[in-house]
Design a protein that fits this description.
The complex is a heterodimer of chains A (about 100) and B (about 230). Chain A has a three-stranded antiparallel β-sheet with strand order 1-3-2. Chain A has helices spanning about 5-10, 10-15, 15-25, 35-40, 45-55, 80-100; strands at about 30, 60-65, 70-75. Chain A is about 60% helix and about 20% strand. Chain A is built from six helices and three strands. Chain A is elongated, with a radius of gyration of 16 Å. Chain A has one domain (about 5-90): Arc Repressor Mutant, subunit A. The relative contact order of chain A is 0.20. In chain B, helix 6 (about 145-160) runs antiparallel to helix 7 and helix 7 (about 170-190) packs antiparallel against helix 8. Chain B has about 230 residues and is mainly alpha-helical. Chain B has two domains: about 5-40, no CATH class; about 45-225, no CATH class. Chain B starts with a helix and ends with a helix. Classes of the chains: A alpha+beta (about 100), B mainly alpha (about 230).
Chain lengths: ~100, ~230
Amino acid sequence: MNAQAFLQLDRVIHEKGRLAIMSMLAASPELSFTEMRDTLKMTDGNLTTHIRTLQEAGYVSITKSFQNNRPLTTCSLTSSGKRAFTNYINLLEQIIQQTKPK
Amino acid sequence: MTTADHFALDEIDFVIQSHRMESNWAAEHLQVIRTLMERSAVYRRALAPIMTFNGILGVAAGVIGWSVKINSSRGFIGYWAGVGVAALAGSFLLVRRQALKEGEPFWSPPTRRIAQALLPALFVGSVAGLVTLVYPDWDFLQYRSLPPFWMVLYGCALTAAGFFMHRGIKLLGWLFILAGCALMVARCQTVTSLPPLNGHWAMGAVFGGLHLAYGIYLYFTEQRGNGM
């Protein structure tokens, strides 16, 4: 078994909460903070921390706007985030292939 | 040693211990990702108020149409087109209200997908109604055949939208399709079936009744379903 695939797994994405956020954003052009919080059942603080980490890694972009005088925060994957997520999925598939019983 | 380094070492140790378990872990991980991606694309607005509103409107429209005896072809089509517009406008407002309440954009990607899925069949139904209204002697479709035709098309629209909504919507779509088909068969069986007044009855019972039944069902189940 080649452990190389495991070493290549993106540590930023691999954390459970951040992987969930990346998965949701990969399926939708953009999602609001509340949509993600409700679906993932995370606290505001937890979600904010994970999103900040992803933003610092350049994987997620955040847009803040106002809708009917209420603040609206929406997140979307950057092109680098999409690339990183695709690589992550490819590596997982590679791991499955490598460890499949012959 | 950073947390990330520690995490990476954990993973490698685990690999060395069991390849089979690691394969399962990766497969489970992929499954979680797939589920989350599907959830993210699913329409999340509560459907119970929308279904109940349309159910009450449909039943009321059927009763009013039947008791007021709107029995000309133009009257029938115009009346039910008006009911359709009212249903659409009411649903739109309910969805918008929910979005505002939750501080989310109304025209979100899932909403767009639902609208795109509903549009083709609803468009065909509207055009069929309009053509029958303008050309009452059109030999392809007469206004007495419109209720089952609309039901089948509406069922197709719901089935298409069901790919981006709760699974129950597909079933509701199929019930509309089956009801429409049953009415088509009934129409062929007797020459006098589905005259306008019976048409009101059929529209009220199927459009109103099915929406209302589904709305009531959702009131008891949606709270739990939204927790997905």
